[in-house]
Every structure is written in structure tokens, then in C-alpha cells.
Specification:
Helix content is 4%, strand content 46%. The protein is mainly beta and 824 residues long. The radius of gyration is 46 Å and the shape is flat.
Length: 824
């Protein structure tokens, strides 16, 4: 072996030892990094992009999915540490799945902590990684952002590489807005809006898309009560959707979609159910994916009213029942419902005629016998007549439309003398004041029968309580005595026997004026010597003729309502300080003077201004934290609430300019001037504000401080040093360009990334407190700071951030992007 070959072999061995030692040191460093939670991924080691679909700014349905496609490529692989992609996903999303194509990358929800999804690439080399797709459900409006996604190394990377900075991207992030009632308008109603049981109406419901976005495919329904769906159509400008729900209470449209500005029209034919009381049809319009559940306009449903027109229900006596408008059920007399309209809205179930015939009525009972068409029913009404041959329970049922019915039950007695004929001899009370409300009427007479005798008011039945054969109590509703007049009271006793009594008159008198009450005066005080003014009086029982009195003397009064009057108080009444009693008088009939007067105070005149709210500290150019409020007061420190004419003017004591919304002069309201939007244009301390007004002693506020406004971010300020390459320490200088900003001074803030300390150029050392280092102006709006001599050693192998403060006039600007610079 030659000497040269031996030398080469030795060199090769030395290289192998060095490589092994380097790997050992790298592993040690890697373990140290994991244990200390320091940054294991540097910006640029891994480049990744995230694409959200649908992208931010879209509008989606609740329960729809959003995907995030992740592509990553490794430039510098961390030694001995696995690489993960993490998504700190926002509220409103819930994790569904995460996987790569092909398989190889696993994604786990709530890892490493709740609300995060982690996809592990494992130990990696350089080059592209497997593409990963994460899928989430959108439950509510939510916003994604670049700072939520990151590449980390190890299980506790203290400095993850997020897409918020550097060469990574999450450009499609943003807000996904869920459809809601503010973006989809819903409504509906029936035509006709009033029908009889068993009839049909066409109900039209609409869902209008005003969101600015297409909805995608969705399902909707109109859910009815007391009705059955017999026809459905779904209409849009595009995808109509499939109709459904025939024979059920719900009409459905499946697979509809709406472009922005389009409307889904759901046209439903529904048949009203036959209920015991003519229950109305209600409708709820629902589209869960669009956040819609809204009540539509109900459809009113009527039964056909039936009325027994005779006086006696007894075997052998003809009984006639006619269709009629009946307000309420009355036993053995009437079944509530509407009259026949004489149109196709109500037709006979058997005859199919718009006026029911005998075939459309059913009569049952122990001896109904022959049934014939009734005579004497009202216009466009019909009915039946039959003569029962035996006592017992009978019913007359009207059959109309498709399945609509209403029935009247009648109890027929066995002889004509079973119930005595009633008589009326006394009413108590026999008179009432108009508008006095519901009351109980006691009727005295003879021949009253429990369960058969009913008090009638102008022929209409009242709710009646049987007391004895000679006494009945009836409830008279307030609606029956709203206006002065007279009413006829009778007693009706149902068959067998019975009948209608003689009539007794009831008088409804005009109501007397009530005694007024007085509770509030507005204003309740003025300063002595004030001009004539209007006073509002609040209380109860005021009438059109009510008069406000001032110490017993009448004032010119305007009636407002039963609780409000306005009176004019002349200047002579408040010429001197003191007090006055205010009352209200109502004229006859009835009426009188309010019992408890209200005291009106005439205070001493205004003498001075006072700050009732002191101005608070603030930031230059912005509204003060507390806005000044100034009151006009008497010498006794009472606010003159009657003053609405004094003009208060503010002025600033100190260097700077004071401005307020609407100006520095303000007219008081109820003795108070409340200023808003007041601000001082420059920083300073111990400012005060002086308030002045003509003829009054001025007032000066307490002191307040104004701090400088924070710097304004500007993209015109750019750092000239490269952020993607180390800066040589031998020629260390930091430089910026101010672009179009004409700066008068520039300072640099240099912060060391490793410990957060700041460079003090004057002392040549790092310190904890922030330092503004003055920069030197160059040419073409450039400014720089050179690090010379021994000071350069302080920057060896460091990373610093450079923030520039640029002064233009009274405004301080700061660079919008603060880079991290590496010095070798």
C-alpha cells in the first residue's frame, strides 16, 4: 500500500468519526428540544398549503360539510422528531374524518387537546408529504383563519409554523355563514282564508332566498293541524324538488334548490277536518337546512249553526230545526256555527246543492217519524221538521261538504205540562251605567226549572244559574251595556211545556263623571321669574271637561286622554319663589275635585354652572372616557329643571384643541347640557375644561390626562434587510424605506427573539425596557442605524425583529410587517 493510499484511508476514517459524532450531538439536541418545548420547526423547513371548500365568504346549510385539503413539502427535516399537521378548528365545526390519499397519514380529533385535530406524518425526510383531507360538519356560522393551522415537530413544539406568516398559505380561509331567517324569508296563507269543515282551501307557502348565495339542495315542509293534504306542487326558477305528503297533515318538497333571489312556492290543497268545535287550520313552514321553522297565517274553519225555532219540546208537537248563525251552544236550543253562505263554500253532502235539502239532514230518536223540509227558516237557510211520537233523546245532524257535520241534541218530554210556563216580576238591578262592565242580574218570577230555564237578553241567551223555582242569576257581559239605551229581559223554559215569559225592561243610563285622581306633574318645579309654560298632568278618570286648578284657580286646559291633561301656567303664577297646590276638577254629573293635590315648587333663580359629570381621561384624537355634563343651578345647588334656553359653552385649558359632536356650545334641556364626542387633539396632562353661560358663574372641571394615540400601521414602511438570508455581522446596519411617507424623524425598536430584550444603541447593550433608537436619514426616504465596533459582538448568532416608528406631522406610523432578521 502506498503512502498516499494510507493517508486517504486515515482521512476517510476521520470523516466517519466526525459524522457519527455529529449524529450523536444532533440526537441529543433533538431530545433537549422536546423536553424544553422550544421551536423544533423553523420557518421554511416545511412549506404547506391548506385549501378550504367551500371557501370563506360562502353561505352554507346547517349540517353540511366543509373539507380542508392539506399539501406539505419538507425542505429541512427535523432530526429524531415526528412531524404533525394541527388544526385548532373554530367553534361551529365538528370533526368527521381525516385521512390521506393513499393511506399512511392518520388524523385524530381532540389531539393534542380538545378542539384540535392532529394528522401525523411520522418521522420524515425531505420532499412532498402525502396529501391529507379533513372533513367537518358545519353546525353554525364559523370563521377559519391562517393562524389556526400549523406544522409542528414532536408532541410539544413551542414554536409551531403557522400559515399566518412565512411561505405557508391558507388563502381560502374565512367565514362560512349558515342560512337563517335573516337570509331566507318565509310566509304563507290560505285562499279562501275562511272555510267550512270538510271544504278545501289552497294554501300557498313561500321560501325566498335573499342571502346573496345559492342554497344547494334542501328539503322543506308545510305541517298542518286539523287538515289533510290532497294536492302538492313545488315551484322554483330552477330545481323545483319532488312533492310529497298526500293523505297526511304534511306537504313536502324534497331536493329543491334556490339561486339568490329565487323563491320556492309550495302550493298545497288541504281539506279541513271535521272537529267538535270547528277548529282552525294552522300551518308551520319548515326548512331545517336553511334554519327555517315559521308559523304561517291560520285558516279559519266554521261549523254550520243549527237552531231550534220552537218553544216546546214534547211528544206529539212538531219540532223545527233551521240552519242559522249561532254564537254559542245552548242545551236543547242551539248548536254554535255560521249560517249557510248560499255558495259553493258549503254544499250538501248528499244533494251536492249549495242550499242543504232534507237529504242532507239526519234525524234520530225513539219516534222521529217522517222528516220534511222546514218552513220559515231565514233567507238562504234551510232545515227539517219532524213530530216525535215518544219522549226521549233526539238529534238533528247536518251533513255538508266532504265529511263536515254538526249536530243539535234535543230532549223531548212526554206531555205538554211537564215544565210550567215562566213569568218574570222583578229584575235586580234594573239599571246600570253604560260601560260599567260585566255584572250579575238576578231575575225573580215563577215557574223556573233547573236545567231548562234560561234568561234571555233581547232574545239572546245568557249564562244562567238556577237558584230556585222563583230565582235565576244570569251573567250580563260588558258588551251588552256599552251604550245608553234599553234592553228586554225574558226567561225561556225548554220543552216539555215551558216557553217564553213576559218581558221586563232594563235601563242602561249614561255614566256619571268619575272623581279624578292626580299623580304626576311635569314639570313639577321651575325657577322663580320663569316665562309662561305648559304643564302635563298625569292621573286617572280625566274627562273632556276636566280642568287643572292652580291654588284653586282654573288654568287653560287641553284634554289628552283619560290619564293625561295639559295646562298653560302663566308667568304671573311663578313670579316668586314658593309652592302651589295643583288639583283637577271634573264637572257634573258626578265628578268633583281630586282629593290629594300635587305640590308644584317655584325655586329660586339660577346663579351658576356646575359640572355634574367630570370629563375623563382619553387618547389624543378620540372621545374622552367620560363626557362632560354641565347643569344650571341655584345658589343652593339645585338644578333648574325649568331651564331649556341657557346656552353653555366649553373651552379647553391647556395646549391643544377641544372638539365635541355638534360644537362646543349646547342649549340645556331641563337645566342640563350633556355633551358628547368631546376629544382633545394632542397628548398632555392636567387638562381642565371651563364652562361658561351668559349671566351665570362659570365652572371649571377637574383635571384629566390625554395620552398619545397608538402608531398607525402602514405598508409604505418596508425593511430593506433581507428576511430570508443571514446578515453579516461585519457589515451590520439596519435600514428601512418610508415609501411615500415624508418623515420628520424615525426610530428603530430592535428586539432579540431569544429573550425579548431591546437594543440600547446609546449604551451598546441589551435591556429589558423598550428603547427607541434614532435612525439616520439617507437618500430617497431611506433611514438606517449602523452597529459598529464592539457593539457588533452583541448581535452574534442572534435573531431580532425590527419595528420602525415613523413620525409624519402629528401622526406616528409603524411598519405593517415586522420581520425577523438573522445575524450570523
Amino acid at each position: 500500500m502506498t503512502m498516499m493510499a494510507l493517508t486517504r484511508k486515515r482521512h476517510r476514517a476521520l470523516h466517519l468519526w466526525a459524522l457519527a459524532l455529529g449524529m450523536l450531538l444532533a440526537g441529543t439536541v433533538g431530545l433537549g428540544l422536546r423536553g424544553s418545548q422550544v421551536a423544533a420547526i423553523a420557518e421554511g423547513d416545511v412549506q404547506f398549503t391548506v385549501v378550504q371548500s367551500p371557501a370563506g365568504g360562502s353561505m352554507v346549510q346547517a349540517g353540511s360539510t366543509v373539507t380542508f385539503d392539506v399539501a406539505a413539502s419538507v425542505t429541512t427535516a427535523p432530526v429524531g422528531l415526528p412531524v404533525h399537521f394541527e388544526f385548532d378548528y373554530p367553534a361551529g365545526l365538528s370533526f368527521v374524518s381525516g385521512n390521506s390519499t393513499p393511506a399512511g397519514v392518520t388524523c385524530v380529533n381532540n389531539s393534542p387537546e380538545a378542539g384540535k385535530a392532529r394528522c401525523s406524518y411520522g418521522l420524515v425526510g425531505t420532499g412532498p408529504r402525502l396529501p391529507v383531507t379533513l372533513t367537518f360538519l358545519v353546525n353554525a356560522t364559523t370563521t377559519t383563519a391562517p393562524g389556526q393551522v400549523a406544522i409542528v415537530a414532536g408532541d410539544s413544539d413551542g414554536g409551531p409554523d403557522t400559515a399566518a406568516t412565512g411561505d405557508d398559505s391558507f388563502a381560502t380561509a374565512g367565514t362560512l355563514t349558515v342560512f337563517s331567517p335573516s337570509t331566507i324569508t318565509a310566509g304563507g296563507g290560505g285562499s279562501p282564508p275562511l272555510i267550512f269543515e270538510g271544504a278545501s282551501t289552497t294554501y300557498t307557502a313561500t321560501l325566498a332566498n335573499i342571502s346573496g348565495f345559492p342554497t344547494g339542495s334542501f328539503s322543506s315542509a308545510v305541517v298542518f293541524t286539523n287538515a289533510t293534504v290532497t294536492g302538492v306542487t313545488c315551484t322554483t326558477g330552477g330545481a323545483n324538488g319532488a312533492p310529497g305528503g298526500l293523505g297526511t297533515p304534511s306537504a313536502t318538497c324534497s331536493g329543491s334548490s334556490l339561486a339568490n333571489g329565487e323563491t320556492l312556492t309550495i302550493t298545497v290543497t288541504v281539506a279541513a277536518a271535521n272537529t267538535g268545535d270547528g277548529a282552525d287550520i294552522t300551518a308551520t313552514i319548515s326548512a331545517p337546512g336553511l334554519g327555517i321553522s315559521q308559523a304561517g297565517t291560520p285558516v279559519s274553519v266554521d261549523e254550520l249553526g243549527l237552531d231550534f225555532t220552537g218553544a216546546t219540546l214534547q211528544a206529539g208537537t212538531a219540532i223545527t230545526v233551521c240552519s242559522s248563525l249561532v254564537a254559542a251552544d245552548v242545551a236543547n236550543d242551539a248548536a254554535a256555527g255560521a249560517a249557510q253562505p248560499g255558495s259553493s263554500a258549503l254544499i250538501g253532502q248528499v244533494s251536492l246543492s249549495p242550499l242543504l235539502t232534507t237529504a242532507d239532514f239526519q234525524v234520530s230518536g225513539p219516534g222521529a217519524g217522517a222528516v220534511s223540509s222546514a218552513a220559515g227558516c231565514g233567507a238562504n237557510q234551510s232545515g227539517v221538521t219532524f213530530t216525535p211520537s215518544a219522549a226521549g233523546a233526539y238529534s238533528v245532524t247536518a251533513l255538508y261538504n266532504t265529511g263536515g257535520t254538526n249536530g243539535l241534541s234535543l230532549t223531548v218530554g212526554g206531555g205538554p205540562s211537564n215544565n210550567p210556563a215562566p213569568t218574570v216580576s222583578l229584575l235586580s238591578p234594573s239599571t246600570a251605567n253604560a260601560g260599567s262592565g260585566t255584572f250579575t242580574l238576578t231575575v225573580t218570577g215563577t215557574g223556573f226549572v233547573s236545567g231548562a230555564s234560561t234568561v234571555r237578553w233581547n232574545g239572546a241567551p245568557l249564562a244562567t244559574t238556577y237558584i230556585s223555582p222563583t230565582v235565576l242569576d244570569a251573567s250580563v257581559p260588558a258588551a251588552n251595556i256599552l251604550s245608553p239605551g234599553a234592553a228586554t229581559v225574558t226567561v225561556f223554559t225548554a220543552a216539555p211545556g215551558g216557553g217564553t215569559s213576559n218581558s221586563a225592561g232594563f235601563t242602561i243610563s249614561a255614566a256619571p263623571n268619575p272623581v279624578p285622581t292626580l299623580s304626576v306633574l311635569s314639570p313639577s318645579t321651575v325657577g322663580a321669574g320663569s316665562a309662561q309654560f305648559s304643564m302635563t298632568v298625569t292621573g286617572t278618570n280625566f274627562v273632556a271637561g276636566s280642568v287643572v286648578q292652580w291654588n284653586g284657580a282654573s288654568l287653560a286646559t287641553t284634554y289628552g286622554s283619560p290619564t293625561s291633561l295639559t295646562a298653560t301656567v302663566p308667568a304671573a303664577s311663578v313670579a316668586s319663589a314658593g309652592a302651589a297646590n295643583v288639583t283637577v276638577f271634573n264637572p257634573a254629573p258626578g265628578g268633583g275635585v281630586s282629593v290629594t293635590p300635587q305640590v308644584f315648587t317655584i325655586s329660586a333663580g339660577a346663579t351658576k354652572l356646575t359640572f355634574t359629570t367630570q370629563p375623563g381621561a382619553g387618547v389624543a384624537g378620540s372621545a374622552l372616557a367620560a363626557q362632560p355634563v354641565v347643569a344650571v343651578q341655584t345658589a343652593a345647588n339645585a338644578t333648574v329643571v325649568s331651564d331649556s334656553t341657557t346656552v353653555v359653552t366649553l373651552s379647553l385649558n391647556g395646549t391643544g384643541t377641544l372638539s365635541c359632536t355638534g360644537g362646543l356650545a349646547k342649549t340645556v334641556s331641563a337645566g342640563v347640557a350633556s355633551f358628547s364626542g368631546c376629544a382633545v387633539n394632542q397628548a398632555g396632562s392636567a387638562f381642565t375644561i371651563t364652562a361658561t353661560a351668559s349671566g351665570l358663574t362659570s365652572a371649571t372641571s377637574g383635571t384629566f390626562d390625554v395620552t398619545a394615540a397608538p402608531p398607525t400601521s402602514s405598508t409604505q414602511i418596508t425593511v430593506s434587510n433581507p428576511a430570508n438570508a443571514p446578515i453579516p455581522r461585519s457589515r451590520l446596519a439596519f435600514a428601512i424605506s418610508t415609501g411615500s411617507l415624508d418623515a420628520s424623524a424615525v426610530s428603530f425598536i430592535l428586539r432579540r427573539v431569544s429573550d425579548g430584550k431591546y437594543w440600547n444603541h446609546a449604551s451598546g447593550a441589551w435591556q429589558t425596557e423598550l428603547v427607541l433608537n434614532a435612525a439616520v436619514e439617507g437618500t430617497s426616504n431611506s433611514w438606517s442605524l449602523s452597529i459598529d465596533g464592539e457593539a457588533r459582538r452583541e448581535f452574534a448568532n442572534t435573531e431580532v425583529t425590527l419595528e420602525a416608528r415613523v413620525i409624519v406631522g402629528s401622526t406616528v406610523y409603524v411598519n405593517a410587517t415586522v420581520p425577523e432578521l438573522t445575524i450570523r
